[in-house]
Amino acid sequence: GAVVSQHPSWVICKSGTSVKIECRSLDFQATTMFWYRQFPKQSLMLMATSNEGSKATYEQGVEKDKFLINHASLTLSTLTVTSAHPEDSSFYICSIRREGRTGELFFGEGSRLTVL
Amino acid sequence: AQRVTQPEKLLSVFKGAPVELKCNYSYSGSPELFWYVQYSRQRLQLLLRHISRESIKGFTADLNKGETSFHLKKPFAQEEDSAMYYCALKNFNKFYFGSGTKLNVKP
Question: Which pLDDT does position B31 carry in this prediction?
Answer without folding.
Answer: 83
